[in-house]
Amino acid sequence: MGRALIGTLVERSHEVVALARPGSEDKVPRGCRVVTGNALDGDSYAPYLYAGDTFVQLVGVAHPGPGKAAEFQSIDRKSGMEAIRVAKQAAVGHFVYVSVAQPAPVMRQYIEARAACEAELKASGLNATILRPWYVLGPGHRWPYALIPFYWLAERIPATREGARRLGLVTLAQMVGALTNAIEHPPEGIRIVGVPEMRSGAAA
After folding, report:
1. Bigger pLDDT: 8 or 201?
2. Is residue 160 part of a domain?
3. Does 181 fall in a domain?
4. Full DSSP string of the chain
5. Rounded to two decimals, what is the model's pTM?
């Protein structure tokens, strides 16, 4: 998601600064400034944050699953909390956070970690956009395409319609579009963007 977003932002003439782990600098798309640091230690990249910046937080466990509860705390929650802490210190203008659709009947530990970061962000006083996808379709994430007929049916049954829409699938292109819209249209206060808005393109 980060690579696709960087490419889109660079094409749209945004000045992008990307955080990379030491040794991974070459994996970052061209056209942006690369800084090295540790996403779990906000002080490692705090010097590169300035008042009025837009901060986009995309760090998290790859391929979340029920067996990764400890990682949700040590990576997802930790990186989010550190990012909010240093963003507040720097007085950034807009914080963009990718959370997860909620409530949901599964992945409770994952949702708890993301919800904790949402609560911290809301208490921070920062202007923020919180995006809540459920599952993003893209390279390496194609098996859920088989579920599309079931979603189609569930969205047409009154008893399951709201949940099916809130926990719907979004494409990588829709996700990048929602992120780009959020970056280019910062809110005053907190804005929540759910799956229906991402899928309709009405995320701004």
Report:
1. 8
2. no
3. yes
4. -HHHHHHHHHHTT---EEEE-TT-GGGSPTTSEEEE--TT-GGGTGGG--TT-EEEE----SS--GGGHHHIIIIIIHHHHHHHHHHHHHT-SEEEEE----S-SS-HHHHHHHHHHHHHHHHHT--EEEEE-SEEE-TT--GGGGGHHHHHHHTTSHHHHHHHHHT-EEEHHHHHHHHHHHHHS--SSEEEEEHHHHHHT---
5. 0.91
